[in-house]
Amino acid sequence: MANIYSILLVVLASFIGAAGSFYLKIGAKEFKIAAILKNYKLMLGLFLYGFSTIFYIIALKFEELTIVYPITSLTYIWVLMISAKYLKENMNSYKIYGIIFIIFGVFFIVR
Amino acid sequence: MNSGIKAIFIMVLCTLFTTLGQIFFKLASVNLAFDLVVLLTNQWLYLGGLFYFIGALILVMALKEWDLSFVYPLISISYIWVALTSVIYLGEKMTYFKIGGMLLIMVGIICIGLGSKTKELKRHINKKKTRFSDG
Fold first, then answer.
1. What DSSP designation does B94 have?
2. Which of A14, A100, B55, B62 could form a disulfide with B18 if both were Cys (CB 3.0 to 4.6 A apart)?
3. b/e string for B27-57 if b means 16 or more Cβ within 10 A?
4. Among candidates B72, B70, B52, which has minimal Cα distance to A56?
């Protein structure tokens, strides 16, 4: 079993990263280069990206890269869930198979 | 150059930058401490951030050019690079469970890419339909 603290830190980092992508996405809709610093959604997205990296690097301190890096694929699952709920993006069987494969893959990695 | 080959070439480059960023982040994490001086003088942290940023920049440009369903599966190349470089440069051990896990994750990402394609294609077909009805 991989280091439990590292696993929890990466799961947290992947969720914060996914939230970052969400804000980048809604910030990109009103993107204007002149008003980029006033685009709070975009700035929040960038901040969350950076913030998630802190947890990620702490996780790396206690566990191998070949374990920590694959767990970041959970980001894909969070992004799909957030997009389905808040952006009303469609969920289909391909995406659900994808989620199942990634969950099994992560279980293999951390076992 | 053929657009497909160009996309693969660009994404190989992108994943290589991302992977190098990961290796540098791992090296940075060894000297990680809650000490501002130690943090700010950690050169691996800067290198990792720089390579990670360049990788992300290439990814954003690729996403502007090509469909998500095409770019996503190519991103999963990074798992191969990370596996290889971690064994060679970080001396990490590769196990059957790790290989199996990474393969499952790669299949999962490819599935999600395919799932995004159906949506994009539908939108494309709808656009064509409206264009025809207009003319």
1. P
2. B55
3. bbbeebeeeeeeeeebebbebbbebbebbee
4. B52
Q: How far apart are CA B10 and CA A97, in angstroms?
A: 27
Q: Which pLDDT tens digit goes with each residue over B82-121?
A: 999 999 999 999 999 999 999 999 999 999 988 887 555 5
Residue of A nearest to B33 (CA): A58
What tokens does B133 get? Answer: 């009805």
Answer yes or no: are the C-beta atoms of B78 and B18 closer than 8 Å. Answer: yes
- pLDDT band at B41, cuts 50/70/90? confident
Query: Which ipTM did the prediction report?
Result: 0.90
- Residue A107, token pair as written in the block: 């279980």
The single residue listed with the structure tokens 């596996």 is B83
CB contact under 8 A, A57 and B107: no
Closest of B64, B62, B57, B47 to residue B9, by C-alpha: B62
DSSP class per residue in A57-91: HHHHHHS-HHHHHHHTTHHHHHHHHHHHHHS----
CB neighbours of residue B108 within 10 Å: 25
Q: Measure the CA dihedral B36/B37/B41/B42, to 10°.
A: -50
CA dist B94 and A108 (Å) reads 13
> Residue B112 is nearest to which of A70, A94, A107, comparing CB atoms?
A94
- pTM as predicted: 0.85
Structure tokens belonging to residue A43: 């700035």
* B30–A95 C-beta distance less than 8 A: no
Provide the CB-side half-sphere exposure for A97 (13 A, CA): 12
